[in-house]
Amino acid sequence: MNSEHVVWRFRRISWDAWGVSSEVDTVWLSVPDVCERLSLTPGKVHRLVEDRALLGKKIDGVFHIPEVFLEGAAPLPDLKGTAVVLLDGGFSHDAALEWLLSYQDVLSARPIDAIRQGRKTEVRRFALTLAL
Question: Each residue of 4-55: pLDDT tens digit?
Fold first, then answer.
């Protein structure tokens, strides 16, 4: 990763099914960092955001994407369909991003972690119930 770019790290306290708290780190990458990681131009990264293959937000005026939305040198494949369900269901981009990164009791995990575990159908069903 290029040392010129800032990696934002936020801690969120989440609760597991047994009521024990755990810290969840979210590492946020700037567009240049994502470009380097995916070997893409900034325009192509922004196109992935427009196409809902990636979600992100501005932090201190600079657009950032959670690192957990990437898998190796590509966007997490199952993120796009879940993002489409959330956004088409009435979630704003910020609300969809927050939901994906927040612990959900029904899933016993953050939705993004459940997706990474291969539970995309369960996540999308839950997202559909929220969108109704």
Answer: 445 444 444 444 443 433 446 789 999 999 999 999 999 999 999 999 999 9
DSSP 98-131: HHHHS-BTTTTB-HHHHHHTT-HHHHHHHHHHHH
70 forms beta bridges with: 75
Inter-CA distances, 8 with 11, 23, 60, 103, 132, Å: 10, 15, 11, 20, 34
Q: Are residues 98 and 57 in contact, defined by beta-carbon separation less than 8 angstroms?
A: no
Calpha distance 51→84 (Å, rounded) = 9
Alpha-carbon separation of residue 28 from 119, 120, 129 (angstroms): 23, 22, 28
Task: Say what the pTM is.
Answer: 0.81
Write down the domain spans for the chain.
Answer: 8-131
Is residue 38 within 8 A of residue 71, CB to CB? The reply is no
Q: From CA 94, how far away is CA 74, in angstroms rounded?
A: 22
Residue 37 has a CB neighbour count (10 Å cut-off) of: 17
